[in-house]
Fold this sequence. Notes:
By secondary structure, the protein is α/β, with parallel strands linked by helices. It is 43% helix and 15% strand. It has an eight-stranded parallel barrel with strand order 1-2-3-4-5-6-7-8, surrounded by five helices.
Amino acid sequence: MRKPLIAGNWKMYKTISEAIILANGIKREMVDFTSSDIVLCPPFTALNSVYEIIMDTPIKLGAQDIAWEKEGAFTGEVSSVMLKDCGCEFVIIGHSERRKYFGETDEIVNKKIRAALSGSLIPIVCIGESLKERESNLTIEVVKKQLKGGLRELTDEQISKIIIAYEPVWAIGTGKTATPLQAEEVHCFIRKWIEEVFSSKIAENLRILYGGSVKPSNIKELMVQDDIDGALVGGASLKVESFAEIVKNAV
Ligand code: PEP
């Protein structure tokens, strides 16, 4: 059985004091909730403050990015060791905004996954097609290329520790959600690809999240799909009410 996971990606929102208010609100609502894993991904600057609020609860902490090196002269970067030090257990890797605005390639994603795993962090690896690619019927081809490049030469042991988030770029922050069937088609493809390249056991246990304008009103219909195991939530994770409702409606 795959345990559902709902992760909130706060992106570049929330100062430390705002993050403390949001984390306290989520903690109040969700402290006894254990049917799903809940992960909060605030900006780097608020990681430790949020950790201090959730450390004695089942709610977990995640970062939004990671450096591929452990330490060194890499101005502006934050390593796995530093993220662990702040209380992180998860890290989002290869989000489409990082691919689009910061030039992250599948090769970089692969290096970051390795860095996360060797630092005992669980990578949430994001993949997904643009609107143009979907309209040109290239969705599966694009997703396959991202899987091949991002997961290149990872061992079975490494793959069994990762989480994949399918996030169609056209659905992120746009209010347009993929229909449950559109999402399920890609999730099913991802699981089959993992089965073919790695093993059926790994594929069966792999958690695949959906991301792209998830809201309290659409999470249920997404979660009833066989291969959708949770959600990566952006905009709706910035308010206690909507995030808590998504978490509750997901089970
Ligand atoms: C995201 O940031 O990964 C995301 C899915 O954003 P939103 O829910 O706002 O579309």
